[in-house]
Amino acid sequence: MKLKALIVEDEANSREILQNYVSKYCENVTVLGEAASIKEARDFIENNALDLVFLDVEMPYGNAFDLLDQLPDREFETVFVTAYNQYAMDALNNHAAYYLMKPINIDELIKAVDYVSEIKTKETDLENKVLNAQLPGVEGKITIPQQDGFQVLNVSEIFYCKADDNYTEIHLENKKILVSKTLKYFEEALSGFPFARIHKSYLVNVNEVVKYKKGKGGSVVVSNGRELLVSASKKKELLAYF
What we know:
Number of domains: 2
CATH architecture of the largest domain: 3-Layer(aba) Sandwich
Number of helices: 7
Order of helices and strands: EHEHEEEHEHEHEEEEEHEEEEEH
CATH class of the largest domain: Alpha Beta
Structural class: alpha/beta
Low-confidence stretches: none
Distance between the termini: 18 Å
CATH topology of the largest domain: Rossmann fold
Number of strands: 17
Strand order of the largest sheet: 2-1-3-6-7
Shape: elongated
Largest sheet: 5 strands, parallel
């Protein structure tokens, strides 16, 4: 898939290096422009349809997160390019499809572009279609701890789980159950079933996903009508089911 890209980097030398690397090693990427500041980047993004933005974290008068927060409905994927690894967790949890450290490793750059290309191809194919994961029926039970003992649920009854600090909301068709366990606990407990961690806050029963929407990180609609956010870093794992 051909990708239209923007390079956002305040240092001219770094922009030139990345532009040369992309031109030489990423034949499916066309760099439409460059920006040296948050304002330049936003103006360009608002006037061009993009698939990919290479984005430095630290820039004058703001940072990458400030820019992305100003673009809540973006449809492009973001690859962070930075010398500061302290941003990695926040970037991958919320904003970025991939994270590259300076100096740029060419093999990692190619992996980043391939990752984005695969995501964009798949989500374009799936956008607003009725989805069928074609997975085997979910058979099994899980025990839900409660103050006076435990409750037994059929795994197939669970539409999704939502994190609530150190608690988890288990959402069934017409009700929810609040459990004093973390979402990580249920991610591990349901690892043998078709449940996908699509966001730091959501674990979804893939058999209940009926629609995928492109957007900031994308979102899915489950069969009870609820729409759930998908983190950029979780897209590939989810889309692989379909």
